[in-house]
Amino acid sequence: MLMRPWPASAIGTASFEGADERLNRIKRVFIKTQRDHMLDPQQQDSMIKKWPPSEVLVIDTDHSPFFSAPEQLFNLIVKSL
C-alpha cells in the first residue's frame, strides 16, 4: 500500500502559535487540489488560513497529484521556484 489512512482531524488541531520567526523566512507553497476527497476545499482553505504560505497554487487533481498528474505537478513546482 502506497498511502495509508491517518487521522485527518490532526490538521484541524495543529497549532503554529509561537512558531520560530525564522520559519517565516522560508518560502512555503501550498498546492491546492481541486478534486480532493481527502481534504475538501474548505479544509484546504482552513489550512492555508492557519499558516499562510508564500504562494497558493491550484491543480485540478485528486489528493495525490504525484500519481494522477505528475508532469502537471512538476510544472507547478518549477513555476514556484
From TrEMBL:
Q: Which InterPro entries match?
A: AB_hydrolase_fold (IPR029058), MES/HNL (IPR045889)
GO-annotated molecular function: methyl indole-3-acetate esterase activity; methyl jasmonate esterase activity; methyl salicylate esterase activity
Biological process GO annotation list?
jasmonic acid metabolic process; salicylic acid metabolic process
- Transmembrane residue ranges: none
**Where on the tree of life does the source sit, at the highest rank?**
Eukaryota
SUPFAM superfamilies this protein is in?
alpha/beta-Hydrolases
PANTHER family, alphabetically?
Answer: HYDROLASE, ALPHA_BETA FOLD FAMILY PROTEIN, EXPRESSED, METHYLESTERASE FAMILY MEMBER
Q: What is this protein called?
A: AB hydrolase-1 domain-containing protein
